[in-house]
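Please, structure for the following, as tokens.
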Amino acid sequence: MAEIRKHEGQLNAAGKRFALIVSRYNEFFASRLLSGAEDCLLRHGAAPEDIEVFRVPGSFEIPLVAKKVAQSGDFQAVVCLGAVLRGQTPHFDFVASEVAKGIARVNMDTGVPTIFGVITADTVEQAVDRAGARAGNRGADAALAAIEMADLLEQLTEKT
């Protein structure tokens, strides 16, 4: 009986370049997500010179910069970081939806892993938890996904 072949990325960031797109809006949360992502990449072997940070005004602007960065061919993965908190108007729904769709589109259109590390939270407490408190750090989680996907795509490219 034939053995099942399995493919998965390894958590080794060495020799790979990463772009971190970070919203300045809700800086309290975004800065913690960025710290988590940077720490994760470095702990998994990325060199500091292989990590570049791109700041944008708000989460809504993330997909455009992510697309330009992914199209540059300079990076094996793009990590998108920000925080969108629910307020008293439907603004949250529009921004959160468009950011998610935009990042997904960049991912599919460019073929460069473009990872959604944007916190969407109903309360400040939820955002605090996801930015490094009780629920871990979603920036670090996004960086881990970027490392794994970059490695898996590298394996697939080597096979073809």
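The helical segments are 27-43, 62-71, 91-110, 124-130, 138-159. Residues 138-159 form the longest helix (22 residues).
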